[in-house]
Amino acid sequence: MSRETPDADPDRPAEPDIDDQGIDRAQIRDMLALTPEERLKRLEGFVTGILEIRALNAGRAIR
Amino acid sequence: MPAAQSADILRRLAAGEVEFIVVGMTAGVLHGAPVSTFDLDIVHRRTAENIDRLLRVLAALDAVYRKDPRNLRPTASYLASPGHQLLRTSLGDLDCLGTIDDNKSYEDLLPRTIELALADGHKLRVLELAALIEAKERAARPKDLAALPYLRATLDEIRRRS
Questions:
Q1: Which of B136, B4, B129 is nearest to A31 (CA)?
Q2: What is the DSSP letter of B110?
Q3: Nearest by CB: A47 against B34, B36, B149
Q4: Residue B9 in contact with residue B92, Cβ under 8 Å?
Q5: Within a domain: A48
């Protein structure tokens, strides 16, 4: 009888690729797969989303 | 504070034949670093002809000094100085820097830049990632130190690929 190891589970999420500085190398590789313009657009989308949330919650005390 | 439409601002500058170098964390993003920033920083060439071209683009973008309640507009004499012009445009904030990193000008930085293409065919000059890291190491402000691990890891990934 063989014991099933976690690696044998096809539904198991992939391990994050975090280096010893705590940096997610997979995020970097995702960015490197884009063109420079696509990288800027990704940043803009992220920042725009954050600013929209901030605008919706303007004036609210956040503890 | 509107989010800067960085790509559109850069495209306008390039289309206006402005000579400039993208620096700061936007340069890091262009190189592939997974970081966020609200700043779009450029170092412009401070010749009279280039300042004229820059002023034309800034006028079209309705640029004003973002810290000044009088909505003052940038002038040739300010853009000719080595100082930092912190502007708000119709497409978001844009910092036009006469010099960076211990008074380095456009000409000083130029040998350590790369050219990147935009989708519409225009070209951008961007500070090399290694040079950006060195500048951040020298600045050593808390925000620079926080970004350095991401920039170094990105440079490491790029070097592994080449």
A1: B129
A2: G
A3: B36
A4: yes
A5: yes
- Other Cβ atoms less than 10 A from the Cβ of A61: the count is 5
Q: Which residues in chain A touch residue B3, judged by CB atoms under 8 angstroms apart?
A: 44, 47-48, 51
Domains of chain B plus CATH, in order, are 6-129 (3.30.460.40)
Does the predicted model carry a pTM greater than 0.95?
no
**Total domains, chain A:** 1
Cross-chain Cβ contact A37/B126 below 8 Å = no
Please tell me which of A38-42, A49-53, B60-64 the model is most confident about, judged by mean pLDDT.
Answer: B60-64
Angle at A29 between CA A10 and CA A34, to 5 degrees: 115
Does residue A22 lie in a domain region? no
Q: Which of A19, A24, A39 sits opposite B32 (nearest CB)?
A: A39
Mean pLDDT by 10 residues, chain B (162 residues): 80 97 96 91 98 98 92 96 95 95 96 92 95 96 95 96 86
Q: Which amino acid, one-letter code, is at B23? A: V
